[in-house]
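<backbone_tokenisation>
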Amino acid sequence: MWEAVGLGQAEERVYRALVRLGRGTARECTAETGLAEAEVRTALRCLAGFGLVTAVDPGARGDEAGADVAVWVSADPQVALGALLRRRRTELDRMRQSVDELSAEYREAQLRDAPGRLTEVVRGGTAQYARVQDLLAGTEKELLTLVGPPFLDPADDSLAPMQRLLERGVECRAVHAAEVLAADGGWRQAQRLSELGEQIRVLPSVPVKLVIADRRRALLPLSTRADRMMDSAVLVRHSALTDALVALFEQLWEKGAPLGATEAARTGDGPPAASAGAPAPDDALLAMLAAGLKDEAIARQLRISERSLRRRMSVLLGRLAATSRFQAGVQAARRGWL
């Protein structure tokens, strides 16, 4: 474990032995660790170089003879190891910066000498689905998606890949087309993703399906026609193209309406929840109206008839003293229900 800070197993065992003993000679550390005495002496000199142990015998020398007679004490682990970790973290940060600089130079060379290697055509829905899973598994910090029809695999409603991503602390933001939420199970799946931690906003439509991993790799269909999107897609590696796609996502994100439970549902300042067997609370209806879903889609998501939906709408408009959907939205926003 200590290899991460430049120390081996022998150094770790000797240091732990000194912490337990409080102080000790090389021979005492040998008895405590079971290591060879020569190995212990080497470990002590190494630990001293890292500031983890000190020879307290004023006459102790730094050679092997001195190590035989010296009495060694360990430094406070919180202080000494903490300093060592901070130093190594600084070194890693510098290495990370160096990697970024080299990566930028590499990309520029690729752009100059082999620009074709920055893109890869992915053919067929199965291959696209597999590539999306690869992107999710490889994302380290941030995933940005524009979600629109058609679906890569309509039969697959598993949220396990996204759940693993969110559990790893990856920031996930998505802009959904209203048509996606209106599809069978679309609203419920979006709500589940939101509960897991994904940030979702909604627009009437999105111009293209898009997945961007860590702002370095992007996957999008080559065709804008819904019936041809599954034919082929293009994987774009870090370049001005990925920067432009990130900018597109951010513009759409700013325009989107947030998806999620209404403020009324969180604070209790709003329509009372329905009793057992009654229709779903009106906060769900408000959220779907705010997302721009049509009556048919809302009724399907709530699993009620359009006639029942009209009754619910009438009750909601009455509570808000509104005569139209638009006025209901304004009144709901004023009351903090949205």
